[in-house]
């Protein structure tokens, strides 16, 4: 080997090592979610577990399970400053999405799926809990509740008709307000003194 080639390898060796260490693939071992920027301990290929800062998209955060996979970058090629660029977990990812669909999911099977046809599906395994001072549903056709029971802990107000399988509340009022009874000595009584409002 020529002196020139040995000199070249000696000069470029550290550069190639840094390039090889620049981006690595690893497996999550631990997560520290108490920090302002989440910390993850990852086991990188051919190395001891190391801590990395995990960057996530603004407005979205998650706490992955150990065993999830990560793409980790060494800032400046230095293993002392690692950042996790992406974390995924093939064990729990929903499959079979159509092109263009998006899904937020958990390992327990809960999900919010943005489907084709501008349909949003929400699936909760045990409870859907919404907390707000006021909740407004703007629906131009109808709202359907497929449930054996609807429970309200406060008042129910309706600007329109309230209807069941037999008739409307207004129909009940009309019947009550106009009804009479057979009198004791023949004839009929007058309609009620107090109408149902």
Summarize the structure.
The chain is an alpha+beta fold and 197 residues long.
The succession of helices and strands, N to C, reads HEEEEEEEEH
CATH superfamily of the domain at 1-88: Nucleic acid-binding proteins
Q: What's the architecture of the domain at 1-88 in CATH terms?
A: Beta Barrel
Strand order of the largest sheet: 1-2-3-5-4
The CATH topology annotation of the domain at 1-88 reads as OB fold (Dihydrolipoamide Acetyltransferase, E2P)
Number of strands: 8
Please count the helical segments: 2
Q: Summarize the main sheet.
A: 5 strands, mixed, barrel
Sheet/helix structural class: alpha+beta
Low-confidence stretches: none
Radius of gyration: 33 Å
Which CATH top level class of the domain at 1-88 fits?
Mainly Beta
Strand content: 15-25%
Shape: rod-shaped
| Mean pLDDT score | 87
Helix proportion: 10-25%
- Intertermini distance: 105 Å
Domain Bacteriophage Mu Gp45 N-terminal: 25-91
Protein name: Phage baseplate assembly protein V
Pfam families: Phage_Mu_Gp45 (PF06890), Phage_spike (PF18715)
Domain Phage spike trimer: 131-171
